Batch of 3 targets.
Target 1
Amino acid sequence: MSDLSTQLLRQKLYIDGEWCDADSGSTLDVTDPASGKVIGTIANAGAIETTRAIEAAHAAFRSFGYTTSEDRAAMMRKLHALIVERREPLAQLLTLEQGKPLAEARGEIDMSAKYILWFAEEARRTYGDIIPSPWRGRQILVTHDPVGVVAAITPWNFPSSMLARKIGPALAAGCTLVIKPATQTPYSGLAWAQLCEDAGFPNGSVNILTGSASAIGGVLTSHPLVRKITFTGSTDVGKLLMTQAAATVKKVSMELGGNAPFIVFDDANLDRAVEGAIASKYRNSGQTCVCTNRFYVQSGIHDQFVAKFVEATRALRVGSGFEDGVAQGPLIDSKAVETVEAMLADAVAKGGEIALGGKRHALGGTFFQPTIVTGATPDMPFASDEIFGPVAPIFRFDTEAEVIEQANATEYGLACYFYTADLGRTFRVSRRLEYGIIGVNEGLVTTEVAPFGGLKQSGVGREGSKYGIAEYLETKYLSIGGLNG
Ligand code: NAP
């Protein structure tokens, strides 16, 4: 790691512009998933520190909430420039704590920078309306004001960009934040505090806590000064936070789990489909919410697709994210490996065939072989549960109607993909798939300019795009009378 990465590795809490320890002095270890070695500690904060951070964010909101959009856009452009300048040390920090290949970590930092720049631009476009009045002598105005103090909780799989999607629109709108990154990958989160401080955001506008998820989350969801909870993570934790936030009727945005189907129709461009399959399945070792969970391949093209997909998957190099040419790093922890193993054992017992991989990798630790299972059936856990690992189950299908029904047979509705050369089918199938994000002949779909979010139990609200900032604004209506004297 470079000296700059070491400087960016901050191990304390960041409250009201001060780096501080937990009141108790208690700390937690953070490990490198590739080696299992401890790379540092973090403060183990709880309810007391969380209350202090909320009060600091509230005090900061009193002035930050009234800054001009021009001023906020300028600070955000500075923030963007700092991320671009520190791209390499930030990427190295990310790979160290998360394990993903350095090329992917650089891509994630680039994505963080893009979200910040996008929302620097959007800060100046939170237009209101003037509505034609039904009454003489009155004007009806609609304005959009910042929500207030925002609590943000994020997962370990994209420890930088999941925060960019929340910090960007919140600051652009004029909100202040209290943030809790994942305990397994806290340093990319804490680096945001340093970046925001260096970009000139005032004390208290961005506060970052690490420690007990239930204690911090309990206060964030119940404190009356917090006006909004924005969460990315599992559906179970999202439901819990929504329930807790209900008592004080907070606004909520939830980016939750997925179970993405990837459908290959007989008329698809085979090479393009295989390329998309590799990208959508094995990115971040299969640990993304939009990773393909279920492949559905039509009978006429099934065997050709499997042969090419196996060949392409075999070429993926597994290893430490810091090694050149590595396409797949370790899984986040041993529990993730055990989950994948249990799913595979169940699939084999139900008649699935391992076409490639299927075992822990010879490197040991939490490395796992990229795996393909054919003959998948709806009674296997892949059909209903998130795999979150490098396992590709392949289901065979015959008709369009049958595959749409199977693809929709899940409580999730985040991302899905399908490959076809037929324009009519493109629109027909897109309309019928119950998903918030649809890749047609594309396996990578995330961009700051488009709305990201799910239907059904995959979430509430959208991140990125012009829709992303609306989640951080309240709508006010002014009825101004007596205008005719
Ligand atoms: P997770 O277990 O739900 O954890 C996410 C965050 O919630 C972490 O910061 C965690 O803290 C915190 N948390 C856990 N219990 C909490 C509680 N009782 N109160 C408050 N906070 C609590 O999810 P994960 O395993 O880290 O992430 C994987 C999941 O995220 C998958 O389901 C994936 O699909 C989903 N995801 C969704 C999107 C999307 O945009 N839709 C993007 C990425 C990931 P600790 O780390 O301290 O436990």
Target 2
Amino acid sequence: MTRGRFVAFEGGEGAGKSTQARLLVDALRARGLSVDLTREPGGTPGAEAIRALLLDPPGEGWGAEAEALLFAAARADHVARRIRPALERGEWVITDRFVDSSRAYQGGAGALGDEAITALHAIGSGGLRPDLTILLEAADEQVSERLRARDGDTSDAIGGRDAAYHRAVAEAFRRYAAEDPQGFAVIDASGTPDEVHARVLAALAPLLERA
Ligand code: TMP
């Protein structure tokens, strides 16, 4: 049995990652592939418990180091208990966010820097990388509109950070994608969900041909 394929959707808030992940899973299943759809932080009972701690922190909230360690801990459990076993069974795994979110949010926009996040990932998850990371890039106005529709006035501890933080997140994602053109596909997230889905499928064509 060949190892399955691992695809991560990444991007800032409201870029349409969850919608695109679902559309991709439907398309892959329609081709007869066995697919596991998951998300981060989360994807296992332990990692979902850590998600609740991260997005609705008790007390005065987490410091930058504790936050990065919690994301890495959630990911270690997710990789060990769900992602690696599914890949070893030959399934496709589609995740809504993975380590590049930690690199962009905690590493690039936060205080920690990319080396520290990459080191934590090596310790926690053996440095596992997706076969392809799909970075969805949306214009600011489109994002604000989608977020208003999705969240109303509520947003979590990280989504609710200021505009400068989210601009730094977007810049970091762009930088990582430019540094690794083989590993990333940068996709314009403007237009209808079906239009964006067609771009995602085109970016995945090389992986699908080898499946
Ligand atoms: P979600 O809104 O995509 O479910 O993600 C929850 C929040 O967690 C979102 O604001 C992005 C943030 N996040 C990080 O800061 N670092 C990470 O490693 C991950 C996976 C998410």
Target 3
Amino acid sequence: MSEIRVLLDAESLAQAAAEIVVQKAQSVLAGRGQFNLVLSGGSTPRRLYQLLAAEPYRDQINWLNVHVFWGDERCVPPDHLDSNYRLAKEALLDHIPLPPENIHRINGELEPIAAAQDYQEELANHFGDAEPSFDLVLLGMGDDGHTASLFPHTSALQETTRWVIANYVSQKQVWRITLSAAAINAASTVMFLVAGADKAIALKDVLQGEHHPQERPSQLIAPRSGDLHWLVDQAAANLLKR
Ligand code: 6PG
């Protein structure tokens, strides 16, 4: 199933996303008993994390059986202002009863290649040697159509076997650690959160433009057998043909 939902504004988007996270978590926890959630970086998900960390959403999830991962991380220490882990820790993890061993942080403080190998091993330990089967992957999208740290014309876009890659992003002259599109597409549900007028051109190109995933890496995301939700606000959806 694939859907595009246009919400009034960023707050409505965060609330709709919180409803989906709770619903997915409850159904997976009732079934398999463990919920594997991949958190997104960037600024958009902060409000979602704050909602999940407070009533009425907080106590609707049995956090003891939730495992959190990251879709990507900057190559910085965990207490750095740019750290995606720090964002999630401050907005969510410090406010929920998630066991520390269920937090699977990307060790951005390591040398990039080592950090990627380390996370690949972390996933292999958690999922066994089977492919990672995340229950829900949260993603943002940049105004250049990137997602996670899959940036246009970068080497990570070609990866077909590894789940985690150290990706040099020449546009920013930085290394990033990112899940591969293949690892994301193995998930049972993927949810993009896209808000703001600055994303309107990229969103139109990604969703309604020609298929050029090297230029618009978000077009690589198509869960093989899972559901894809695009939650966008009206400002970001402004150029979409309805
Ligand atoms: C990151 C994210 C990245 C982000 C987009 C959108 O580490 O920055 O993984 O893919 O989701 O750049 O960022 P905003 O939500 O800040 O617009």
